[in-house]
Every structure is written in C-alpha cells, then in structure tokens.
Amino acid sequence: MLTEPCTFVIFGATGSLANNKLLPALCRLEAAGRLPTALAVVGFGRRTWDDATWRERVLEMLRERMGRDFDEIVLTRFVQRLRFFRGDLELSDDYRKLRQFLESNPDLPANLVFYMAIRPTQFGEVGAHLADVGLNRREGSWVRLVVEKPFGYDLESAQVLDVRLHRHFDEDQIYRIDHYLGKGTVQNVLVFRFANLMMEPLWNRNYIDHVQITHTETQGIAQRADYFEEAGALRDMIQSHLLQLLTLVAMEPPASLEAESLRDEKVKVLKSIRPIPQSAVHAHAFRAQYARGMVHGEKVPGYLEEEGVVGQSTTETYAALRLYIDNWRWRNVPFYIRTGKRMGSDLSSIAIRFRHPPQLLFRDTPIERLRPNWILLGIQPAECLRIEIQAKVPGLEMLTRTVTLEAGYRHAHEASLDAYETLLLDVLVGDRSLFLRYDEVRAAWRVVDPILKVWSMERDFINTYPAGSMGPADANRLFEREDQIWRDTLSSGTEGSP
Ligand code: BG6
Prior knowledge:
This protein has helices at about 15-30, 50-65, 70-80, 90-105, 125-130, 155-170, 185-195, 225-250, 260-270, 280-285, 420-430, 440-455; strands spanning about 5-10, 40-45, 80-85, 110-115, 145, 175, 210-215, 285-290, 295, 300, 320-325, 335-340, 345-355, 375-380, 385-390, 400-405, 465. By secondary structure, it is an alpha/beta fold. The strands form 3 sheets. A 9-stranded mixed β-sheet has the order 16-15-14-13-7-12-11-8-17. Strands 3-2-1-4-5-6 form a 6-stranded parallel β-sheet. The two termini are about 45 Å apart. About 40% of the residues are buried. The structure holds 6-O-phosphono-beta-D-glucopyranose. The site of 6-O-phosphono-beta-D-glucopyranose has 5 residues, from loops. 6-O-phosphono-beta-D-glucopyranose binds near residues 217, 348 and 380.
C-alpha cells in the first residue's frame, strides 16, 4: 500500500508517549526509508518553543535513545521534518490558528493525521475543537484521528466518547490504537495457530487445561501518577492490551486477514466472555498495590510514596482475573490474566498448559507424576516460541524430564520492529486491521466494568505486595485447582511449572 505525503500532528508533543514511543518510531521509519519524502511532523504543545528548539530537544533525546551507532545523517534528516506549533488544547482560538498554520504553509501536505498523545479525558474535546474549525475533513485529502487507550474510563464514558467522536469523524477516519497488536510475537500468534495444521486439533477445551496471560514490569509508575491514579492496572493493561492477546489466542479462524473479518472474530470472543456479576467479583478478580521493596538490588519506594500519589490511594498496581469464554471451543477452560508494576521481572507472555494424558501408563514406574505440556509464547523481553514436552532421562531407570522445543524464529540479521513503527506505518497507509473497532472496545469494557464498579466502592483497603516480588500470594486463590500456579518464567525446570 502507498504511503502518501501527510502532515502528522502530535497533540502532547512534549509528553512521555511522544518522546518514548512516537518520535523514536517515526525516526526508525525514516532510517528504513519508509516515510514519504514530504511527510512533516507538527508538534502541538504549550511550551514557548520554536522549530529550532524542538528540533534540538528531539535530536538530543533521539541520540540518547538510538545509541551511538545510529546514523547521524538519518537523525538530521528526520528532525528537519519537525515543526513546532505553540497551542493550548483548551483554547478554541488555538485550533483556528492551527488551521491557518497548516494552510498557509506550502511545506505541510494536505493529508492530516492527528495523534492524541494526551490524557484520555481530552480526546472528545480535542476532536470537537478540530471539527469546529473544519479540520475534521478536507476536500480532496484525508484526515485520520489516532486515539490512544484507554478509550473512555468505563463502559458508559466509552459510549459517550464514541458518540462524540462520531459526530465529527467517520468510523474509517478513527484509528483506536492498541500498541500490543503491533508487537511481532502477538501477530505471530495468528500465524502459529492458523498456518500450522498440527495446532488446530489441540486448540480447545479437550486438550487445554488453562491459559495464562501475563504482563509484569519491574518499573513503577514513573512520572505518571496523574494518569495512573485515574486508570489503575485493570484499565491500563487488562481492558486493552491483555484482553486483545486473549482474543488472538481464543478466536476462531477468520474468513480472511482483511480488517473486518479479523475484528469480527475478535469481537465474538469478547462477547462470549462469561459476565462476572458484581457479587462474584472477589472470586474472579484480585487487586493489590506495591509496597516498598527491592528491585534489581535497589530499594524502591511503595506506590503511596511515589511522587504525585496523594493520601491513602487504593489504586491497584496489580490486577489478576479468571475469565471463562462460553463457547464450544473454550467452555470451562480458565483464562488467567495478570499484570503488575514493580514486580520481580519484566515479562509479557502467553502460556498454554495442556491437560494430563488420560491413561496413567507410567504409574508403576519411578515416574511419580508426569508434567503436562506447555506452549509458551514470549512477547518480551525475548520473543520466543517454546513447547515443553516430556522425554526419558537416559539410563536404566524410567525417569522423565521436561525438554523444550525452541523455535528461534528470528534470524540474527532480522531486526525486530517496534510495535509503534508497525502501527504508525499502518496509519500512514490507511490499514486499520490492527486497530480496534468500537464494538471491540465496548465488549472489553463490559468484561471489566463490574470489577471496576466493585473496586471503586471498596476504597478502604487494598492488599499489598513488596516491590520486586512476583505479586501477592493471595492472588493464587483465583486458581481452580492446586496444581495450577502462575508461570513466572518461560524457562523449563521445576520452578514455576507444575
Ligand atoms: C502502556 C501502559 O499502554 O503499556 C503502561 O500505559 C505500560 O503502563 C505499557 O507500561 C507497556 O507496554 P510495553 O510495550 O512496554 O510492554
């Protein structure tokens, strides 16, 4: 598909998303020669900067981020694309000025991308301001709006936001981004499942005992207390990223890889998730907050001591759920999902545990208990695909051990693409398959809404876990049986693999 020239406007150009993800991703696309020659990046921000100041700051930031070996010519070429526009998101007059700026500048192509790297509560308002000055549509050119997550604050506010955006923008102009869908391994889940015949017959309730989806981070909330206090871990990671991973693991084969077919199947999964009544929230969900502890050998403060967190906040930094998908394929197979900040390791993974073989053929041998098979999909830090099977230990005794079949599917010369690179390129070419449709977002809110409601009413107490641990032991009560435990590592061995 064609990347047409466009002006890429970033609202929140000096914020952490722009600096940590968007600008580096655009710069890497520059290095890969994927940006159209005429693409310009306009940073909309309140600082009293001019083009030169912004370019300088970005250059400095990129040099540090990309490392010494990064091509200086590419960096210079990239920053030449940057233009800074001083504006306040809340002032309607500044949008009028923005329009003038865009129209009076021959170097700024007419196709427009507006990227909302701002607080979620501002999406609707900014969309309305753009429409007020006629920037929502352009004769003979396209206008695309990229909306970050969380889309809304709960089911109701998501609905309000959707109606608000649709007042001014058509659905095909709206790109609801979930950067997890841009990650290599995540896309590989589809290939692994649907390009290999041997998996499909096993991929159901007859063979799979349970599925675990984990995202843990060693870092805390960094400088994002404002955002995190509003969001909490359930909204921040589970409602969006981790439920998306669940849809890819659980979906039926789509009719094609075309955007609508894929999204039709994903939404079916979300709609089939068994609703959790408010009275059952404690049986299905667990939340906790990090207390002081040690991470990478260093003392770190607890959540309540983080800058910007006020009072006795009960915002969760850890959330775990047990979900069921009520369809033929998955009925009664638990899906355990968890996420946590300031945990003992950085790990994003999907771990699928198989059932035990039906006949205890080895009962009268020294093999006490066979370990089940696992399929492990590592998303980060390492991208990997592992299958754990049992093999006999060489020697006279009938003993087994777990061996791992490892598919190193990335060759040394194949660079790994950052999720944002993939997705920004999709925005430029107009491919929405990896972006969320509103019915998906709505269905995902339906899943977490009862939990959010109960948690928001229970503000007096929250469990804690020491920073640097793998979360609170009490979260184990979500498991259906004693032989199910969290898979904290993707290496085989006795630890963490019942
Ligand atoms: C973001 C969340 O969407 O995803 C962050 O707001 C989280 O809190 C991040 O740290 C994780 O993304 P990644 O790509 O670093 O796994």
